Amino acid sequence: YQKHVNLRQQLDAQLNENSLVKEELDRVEDGANVFKMIGPVLVKQDVTEAKQNVQKRIDYINGEIKRHEGAIKDLEKKQESQREALSKLQQQLQQQQVKAAARS
To answer: Which Gene3D superfamilies does its entry note (predicted)?
Structure first.
């Protein structure tokens, strides 16, 4: 459960970062010089290509967020059903203890 929550938080941070990049690229005029860092090298990139790449990353991150949210909800449902089962078992145990005490 915690793993999915942590990954969800990381994805949120990545989404925020990519959204900021997208906002910056939206302000850039077509034909302006945009550079992409690949390892230690800056490589010139077309503005429209850069915008498309960022949008693809945002779409991918949103998909991953939805996937992790689904997993979190499933785990929460399982956790709740386990709590209910545990509660029923505790009640049964208490009833058995009361019956045993009454017989004594």
So the answer is: 1.10.287.370
Report the C-alpha gap between 29 and 35 in whole angstroms. Answer: 14
pLDDT at 104: 75
Fold of 2-103: Helix Hairpins (1.10.287)
CA atoms within 13 A on the CB side of 26: 8
Confidence (pTM) = 0.77
Instruction: Determine contact, residues 25/51, Cβ cutoff 8 Å.
Output: yes
Quick: pLDDT tens for 21-64: 999 999 999 889 999 999 999 999 999 999 999 999 999 999 99
Within the chain, residue ranges assigned H as helices are 2-27, 47-103
Query: What 3-state DSSP class applies to 84?
Result: helix
